[in-house]
Amino acid sequence: MAKAWINGDENAKQMLSRVLKERPLLHLPPPLHRVPLGVSNILEIVGPSPSAKTEILLQVAVNCILPKNRNGVQYGGLEHSVLFLDLDCRLDIYRLSQCLKLKITEANRLQKTKDLQKCVVEVSDHNSSNQREYDDTDVFSECMGRFLYTRCYDSFEFLSALKALNYKLTSNGVHVLMIDNIGAFHSIDRGFSSLPQGNPSRKNIGLQSVFATVVLEIKKLLELRSMIVLATKNVTNQVKSSYSTRASGCLKNPYREYMPLTWQSFVTHRILVRPLDDKRRFGDQVSYSGEWLLPALSISVEFVVCDTGISDSL
Amino acid sequence: MGALKYLAEEYAAIDANFLQFCASHGIFSVEDFLIHDVYMLVASADQVSNSDQLKQVINQLLSVIETYHQPWMNGLVLLEDREQNKHCLSTGCNSFDVLLQGGLREGHVTELVGPSSSGKTQVCFQVASNVAMKLGGVVFIDSGNSFSPTRIKQIVTRIFGSVGNQVNGIIQQAMRNIECHAVFDIYALLNVLHQLKSTLESQDGYKVRLVIIDSVSSLIAPLLGGGNAQGHALMVSVGYLLKKLADRHNIAVVVTNHMVSGEVGNLKPALGESWKNIPHVRLQFSHDHATNVYGVCILKHPFMASGRSANFIIP
Fold it and tell me: Which of B9, B122, B204, B295 would suit a FRET pair with A201, their CA atoms being 20 to 30 Å apart?
């Protein structure tokens, strides 16, 4: 009995293939795809405005909500549901639907050419192609249904959204939680801490306590459900690049860190994106550079944003 | 949100007993409850005699909390809302409309940034006249005494064309549709915006399509700098209030941002880095004095590539 329990029932290879099948790894769009994200990872996308942070989130979202395959067409998606917490209140859903439609049409086109190559002899009838057109809208609405969105106008709405998620969210399937600009209410919350409390036993409401609770609630979400967290963080340049910071070689990240330590240490992965100088524009397109800070890869890649999404600048 | 005791009036389950339990943990308001760990509260409720009842009330409070954030919506609902309620407002200037694929979008906050006399205020007048003539209410918040009814009259007459006696009627309609507020500090601005919000929520017939703040930077910029945390907090509050108005009441919001001299003699926007993530759309204006041609360039847009530009003239 006991021996059977000790004996393994699958080897590492089997386990890896099982786990990867159940919870496939999440990649950022290439060329930012070097570090894969797994369940319980927390990625922070850092960058000044504008640096295509929200665009990266939307591209990942499209990849998540697409099905793996439907009606014989390979869409290559992950079939996860996406929970988008918009603290910047700036998402235009049109951009998501535009990208999604492009991806679906592209997948169908590929499938059609494949079909044609496969059965040149068979006479293709119009009915089947009509059928496929009809399915397009089905796939589209199925995907859009997996994208859930709410916006928060202050930290308390953000906290109540997280608390309600903990209370309500069922644990089936993988959820990808996206937080667009985690530091959105930073300057408002910072102002709170100077307010009098009126009671010694009362917890001080302020930046620290808000983020302690945010981290706690996300931790609870991760404990009970398979979830990946992606958060963007808007940063501004160092107010004054003093000699000491320049001398100590802080050139790698010239932006000011303002988030409380509880959040900083909570993040497991971090990537820095920023716009490149005007001189290096490719035609009309603005190009951006991306660099992984955590885990630190000393390679920085360049990318551009076009209608279809993010791609290499070459 | 607010004090827990006010919730007690609405929900019978939240009784004096529960309020006392919360007070012993330093929880007096919903905000206090939000920054507390629910598990800890449940655990400490276990040590009290009437633990089941307390836990029930905690659960009920959690379901109340759910109504304090905006509801979750799926992509289809969002897309439908956008298609049905968030229209494009034509600016009345063709090349401008083409650049923006139809005009200023309701639900968006659009920022016009440019140096002095680059056409920002003139574009505001143009859009205000066009919307007031054809579509509905405009709120013009003026911080520099730049609002000019004669200029509006001029623009309306030009757009309408010279069809004799009908012009007066159209001018009257346009003038009736424009509400102008002179505002000289940020508190007055917040006051106007809060009043607008409550009027929109309480009066059914009242509808506004466009809110213009010319210029928002002259109200906010003096508060920033010098390590002043409150200035940034006020700026962000104004930003979120505008975004809330824009989204909930389907209003297009336009704000202008003037430019000041930066480090190496270059001009830079008065509201710089920390303001950048407030507006949906940023448009940069320029003016060529020799040819009298104005230029506009997209710096940021939710679904269009930045860098596209257009030229226009102001007659």
Answer: B9
Containing H/E element for B298?
strand B293-300
Provide the pLDDT confidence category of residue A247 given band limits of 50, 70 and 90.
very low
CA angle A293, A297, A301 (to 5 degrees): 90
ipTM: 0.92
- As to burial, measured by CB atoms within 10 angstroms (0-12 exposed, 13-18 middle, 19+ buried), residue B60 is middle
Q: Three-state SS for B97? A: helix
SS3 label, residue B83: helix
Q: Is the dihedral of CA A164, A167, A173, A175 positive or negative?
A: positive
Residue B78 CA to its chain's centroid (Å): 19
pTM of the complete model:
0.91
Domains of chain B, by residue range, sit at: 4-67, 78-312
Q: How confident is the model at residue A299 (pLDDT cuts 50, 70, 90)?
A: confident
3-state SS, residue A237: strand
Query: Which residues in chain A have their CB less than 8 angstroms from residue B308's CB?
Result: 284
Q: For chain A, list the domains and their CATH numbers.
A: 34-123+133-312 (3.40.50.300)
Option in B25, B38, B302 nearest A95 (CB): B302
Whole-number Cα distances in Å, A2 to A7, A11, A12, A15, B131: 9, 19, 21, 22, 80
Residue from A93, A96, A280 whose CB has the most chain B CBs within 10 Å, to mutate: A93
Comparing alpha-carbon positions, the chain B residue that sits nearest to A216 is B37
Distance CA B311, CA B315 (A): 13
Give how far A128 is from chain B: nearest CA, Å: 27
Q: How far apart are CA B65 and CA A158, in angstroms?
A: 11
Which among B183, B114, B179 is positioned nearest to B152, based on CA atoms?
Answer: B179
A26 contacts A42 by C-beta, under 8 angstroms: no
Q: What is the dihedral of CA A64, A70, A72, A77, to 10 degrees?
A: 0
| CATH tag, B78-312 | 3.40.50.300
Q: Which of B1, B34, B232 sits opposite A163 (nearest CB)?
A: B34
Distance between CA atoms of residues B298 and B309, nearest Å: 6
Question: Rounded distance, CA A169 to CA A148, Å?
Answer: 12
Owner of token pair 């000041």 = B260
